[in-house]
Specification:
Oligomer: heterodimer
Number of strands of chain A: 0
Largest sheet of chain A: none
Order of helices and strands of chain A: HHHHHHHHH
Radius of gyration of chain A: 21 Å
Shape of chain B: globular
Strand content of chain B: 25-35%
């Protein structure tokens, strides 16, 4: 099986054209990017609002847990039955799994900013929008990026399901391989997804480290 | 003029933080709100810049109800110093100090120029400008907090326990600097502290608040010490009360003795005061060293300026091996000395206060 996988990788034809490995990789990244971007657009304002005002924080945990408990494949299948084949059903399923980590990161980042710093900002004459943009978000950046990192990893790993409803991405190898009993090809998909996830995680870890140097903590 | 008109603050839980407070804070004065924790001193102060809204009464600045001024506009005109400085950890020292000017619409370059000036005024080295707050000591952070509050040159400065988080030596240094600064810039300063010593040292008016935000006395420091209005005030100033009163008394009427002429080496023979003793003055350092019969040197001891407080004079005498201290008169001449016996007639400040 491993040999079959290596043979697949070794064959030049598998690296070219619309169904080649680079193209599949590109599709996979594109779905992931769309899903994370959409989730960020939805989760950011909510997280900032709850973190800044403290209003509704009791609902945050239960809502996140509900979202996390939703089966992605089930959601996608349901949406396909309702809306037909297309990009939207898998995207919606991916967005739903990306929202909880982003929401948690943004909320925790904003809510954990030293209340004295926020009080100082308000007392010297900053209005709320400035406090959020100039104080809370910059200080929340490490936790926000941490949340984004979690979301990206989960989405990249889960984006394989797009292939289940006849779309592209690295899931193509897995579902095609399963249909043809070609486990070497299944392994090709699995290895590529894993490698992609690890590389992205490493890059994001570096980014998180770069924005959270020691200077961000006030020495007491 | 900041006026509190029967101001009350009742929190939803039923806690009465401030009770029917009437207070008039004169423009250019240094007013200290002092009292134990839970006496509503910080709450009262934060009503001036609308960080707390009163549930009863009004707070006026120059006759205008602060509730009628837009909160952001009001706060931009009032400097605010917090206990732990409350600096922005993600901004450099310079940008922290420049914050208010930036909010007022100045360009980055103009704001930074003003910020440099403010840093200089509070004794912060220019080399610290590019540091981040976490790289500074507690005392330096507090200076940055003061510089940030002063940078926009607001007429009013609010300080919330500004020195309670730094060590005693730095605290003394900062207190002296704030006192100097105030003599120079003449802001209307309102400071909150639980430290009655700090209040007596810095304030020219002190408001003593008891738990529940009840005002017990509002007076000059000497009156707080000499004539506490209630038992509560008396208990607050009980420690070293008589001794502290001496800080507000002068050396006026002090009987002194002329110093003998010094020998060519600058040594003054003091055997008339105490057999065998002599004294040598170090003009540049403002000190004197006492020398006993065997040539052993005691010092340096401070010279006492004629306008010093009675407390300073007494302390100098008590610390001197001969129970005498040299006096520097108004023209800088060191021509006389005084002893514990000379201070005796002055050591009845309370009698004078009563007279």
């Amino acid at each position: 099986m491993i040999n079959e996988m290596l043979a697949y990788f070794a064959q030049g034809a598998n690296w070219a054209g619309e169904t080649g490995i680079p193209a599949r990789l590109g599709e996979h990244l594109w779905y992931s990017f769309l899903a994370v971007a959409a989730a960020a657009v939805l989760a950011f304002p909510v997280g900032v609002f709850i973190g800044h005002t403290g209003v509704g924080k009791v609902y945050l945990v239960s809502a996140s847990n509900v979202l996390r408990a939703l089966p992605s494949l089930g959601i996608m299948t349901l949406l396909v039955l309702l809306m037909g084949i297309g990009l939207l059903p898998p995207l919606a399923a991916l967005v739903l799994i990306a929202i909880p980590p982003i929401l948690a990161g943004v909320y925790a980042g904003v809510a954990n900013v030293d209340p004295e710093v926020v009080d100082a900002a308000r007392a010297i004459g900053m209005k709320d929008s400035r406090i959020i943009l100039q104080v809370e978000l910059p200080l929340a950046l490490p936790l926000i990026l941490g949340g984004m990192r979690g979301a990206i990893l989960q989405v990249v790993a889960t984006a394989t399901i797009a292939a289940y409803v006849n779309l592209g991405g690295l899931g193509r190898y897995i579902f095609d391989g399963l249909a043809l009993y070609d486990y070497g090809q299944v392994l090709v998909g699995a290895v590529l997804v894993t490698a992609l996830a690890l590389v992205l995680d490493g890059l994001l870890a570096l980014l998180v480290k770069a924005v959270s140097p020691a200077r961000r903590a006030i020495a007491r | 003029m900041i006026t509190f008109e029967s101001v009350s603050k009742l929190y939803p839980g039923g806690t009465q933080a401030v009770t029917d407070l009437d207070l008039q804070i004169a423009t250019g004065s240094f007013t200290v709100l002092v009292g134990p924790s839970g006496c509503g001193k910080t709450t009262s102060m934060r009503m001036i810049n609308r960080m707390v809204a009163p549930t009863g009464g009004r707070v006026l600045i120059d006759g205008q109800d602060v509730a009628d001024i837009r909160a952001v506009t009001l706060r931009l005109g009032i400097g605010y110093v917090l206990q732990n400085a409350g600096l922005f950890p993600h901004r450099t020292v310079l940008d922290n100090v420049a914050t208010v000017q930036r909010l007022l619409g100045l360009s980055k370059a103009e704001a930074r120029t003003k910020a440099h000036e403010a840093m200089e005024r509070v004794g912060l080295d220019a080399s610290l400008a590019t540091r981040y707050p976490a790289q500074l000591s507690g005392g330096q952070q507090q200076r940055v907090g003061v510089a940030r509050a002063l940078a926009a040159d607001p007429p009013i400065l609010l300080m919330d326990e500004p020195f309670s988080a730094v060590d005693p030596i730095v605290r003394l240094e900062l207190q002296q600097e704030v006192a100097h600064l105030q003599a120079e810039i003449k802001k209307t300063i309102v400071m909150v502290t639980h430290d009655i010593d700090e209040a007596l040292t810095l304030g020219d008016r002190i408001a003593v608040l008891a738990p529940g935000g009840v005002l017990h006395q509002y007076a000059a420091p000497i009156d707080i010490l000499a004539r506490p209005a209630t038992d509560f005030v008396a208990s607050l100033v009980a420690k070293d009360r008589g001794f502290r009163t001496l800080s507000f008394e002068t050396l006026t009427g002090l009987g002194t003795t002329a110093l003998p002429v010094p020998d060519p080496e600058g040594i003054i023979d003091m055997s008339a005061l105490s057999p065998g003793w002599s004294v040598q003055v170090n003009r540049d350092a403002g000190t004197a060293a006492w020398i006993d019969a065997d040539g052993a040197v005691f010092g340096p001891h401070p010279l006492v300026p004629a306008d010093a407080s009675l407390r300073t004079g007494l302390d100098a005498v008590l610390a001197s091996p001969t129970s005498a201290a040299l006096l520097v008169d108004g023209t800088g001449t060191i021509g006389s000395y005084f002893t514990l016996a000379d201070l005796g007639p002055l050591l009845r400040p309370n009698e004078q206060a009563r007279a």
